[in-house]
Amino acid sequence: QVQLVESGGGLVQAGGSLRLSCVASRSTFNIYTMGWYRQAPGKQRELVAIIASNGGTNYADSVKGRFIISRDNAENTVYLQMNSLKPEDTAVYYCNANYYGDVRIYWGQGTQVTVSP
Span 49-62, mean pLDDT? Predict the structure, then answer.
């Protein structure tokens, strides 16, 4: 079993920045992928950004050029640097992890990000 704990959410004005962190209870050296998803009220959960074991990244079109995902294996942590935030980025952000050799998909409890106009 793996616990993922997110932090860094909050209230920010449009144009501002936030950095989310997700700490895993298991070493991330054996990670297949780690990612960030978000869910706004009344909407489905959607992929925001994902980072693979080889360091490759993928982003939702809506955040390309504004958000950066990174990983620190020494700290078992994945980050999401969010710049030029927009009100439509308001959502609960969830961390997600998949490990090699483990069929389970792990989720954090979520952290609220609110962007005011």
Answer: 96
Is the confidence at residue 87, as pLDDT, over 90?
yes
pLDDT score, position 29: 85
Residue 27 pLDDT more than 90?
no
Dihedral pair phi/psi, residue 66, rounded to 5°: -120, -35
- 88 backbone φψ class: left, alpha, beta (φ>0; ψ -120 to 50): alpha
Burial 32-58 (b: 16+ CB within 10 A, else e): ebbbbbbeeeeeeeeebbbbebeeeee
Contact in structure between 69 and 59 (CB atoms under 8 Å): yes
DSSP, residue by residue, 25-75: SS-GGGEEEEEEEEE-TTS--EEEEEEETTS-EEE-TTTTTTEEEEEEGGG
